[in-house]
Design a protein that fits this description.
- By secondary structure, this protein is mainly α.
- The protein has one domain.
- It is built from 3 helices and no strands.
């Protein structure tokens, strides 16, 4: 029987790998709460988009491993 963590890891990882800019923008907007910047003025840095995509790929690999081996 596969691990219960496999499906959420696959879904979240796929979302982060396919839409990293949108996820990074959402993170930046949450980070801007309480600052003087407007939400519409916030843009994610390229390193954050790349890191989000890499994290999504790693999460998907973890989901595949959890499904196959646990």
């Amino acid at each position: 029987m596969p691990s219960p963590a496999a499906i959420p890891l696959l879904l979240v990882g796929a979302a982060a790998a396919v839409w990293p800019r949108q996820l990074s923008l959402w993170q930046e907007r949450w980070d801007s709460i309480g600052s003087t910047q407007n939400w519409s003025d916030v843009e994610p840095a390229e390193w954050r988009v790349t890191l989000t995509r890499a994290g999504g790929v790693l999460a998907m690999l973890g989901g595949v491993a959890a499904y196959a081996f646990l």
